[in-house]
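Progress note, sequence design subtask.
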């Protein structure tokens, strides 16, 4: 019987070792014990492109490569690290997967997403996402000098934080109708996502929606993380 761990929203930052060390411990103590590890977006808080960011996260890249010798690793991009690409996959031994992804396990079927595509009430975010993640925008950005990429990423982050101050709790959460429309395509599956950082289990008549928590610095050790739904283990 195979087993899998599913996590999201680590938001690792280069040079911040507390959360980096916590993830390394998780890889060595928990992820090595399962057949598959799924990371559903925002593994990194910022990813400026494989050509620049791989060097910034050498500890994480090395740890994932070691883990790939025992555990299959599947990575979905999030809204913070959507520029993860082929060289990242090559150096880590991971497989990049698209959203939504249908995961079939011994326990049943699960639809995996990062979760931001379900937050359709936040129209300004969705509009910005469509621009930033457009192939032409990514093509241009990845050819800019490092300093310019850093400056643009910093400016966008500041604007995002400021904009969130004026948005309600409901606007930044998933839209029930959008969730239902997605799950109608997968009538026999449950849903697992991150992004909102509102860990919970929502039981509906048709399906169960599992919301993964983020890996905040104050969450403590791996056992505590597990109890807070910062990961799910599926057999």
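Output:
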């Amino acid at each position: 019987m195979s087993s899998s761990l599913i996590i999201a929203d680590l938001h690792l930052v280069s040079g911040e070792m507390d959360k980096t060390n916590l993830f390394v411990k998780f890889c060595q103590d928990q992820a090595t014990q399962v057949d598959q590890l799924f990371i559903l977006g925002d593994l990194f808080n910022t990813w400026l492109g494989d050509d620049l960011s791989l060097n910034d996260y050498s500890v994480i890249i090395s740890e994932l490569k070691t883990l790939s010798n025992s555990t299959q690793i599947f990575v979905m991009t999030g809204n913070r690290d959507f520029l993860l690409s082929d060289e990242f996959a090559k150096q880590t031994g991971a497989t990049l997967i698209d959203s939504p992804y249908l995961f079939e396990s011994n326990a049943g079927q699960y639809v995996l997403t990062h979760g931001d595509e379900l937050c359709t009430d936040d129209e300004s975010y969705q509009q910005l996402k469509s621009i930033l993640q457009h192939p032409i925008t990514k093509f241009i950005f990845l050819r800019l000098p490092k300093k310019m990429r850093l400056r643009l990423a910093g400016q966008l982050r500041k604007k995002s934080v400021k904009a969130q101050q004026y948005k309600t709790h409901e606007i930044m959460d998933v839209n029930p109708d959008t969730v239902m429309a997605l799950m109608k395509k997968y009538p026999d599956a449950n849903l697992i996502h991150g992004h909102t950082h509102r860990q919970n289990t929502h039981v509906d008549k048709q399906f169960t929606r599992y919301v993964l928590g983020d890996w905040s610095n104050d969450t403590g050790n791996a056992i505590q993380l597990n109890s807070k739904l910062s990961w799910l283990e599926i057999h």
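The chain has a mean pLDDT of 91. Work on this subtask will continue into the next period as scheduled.
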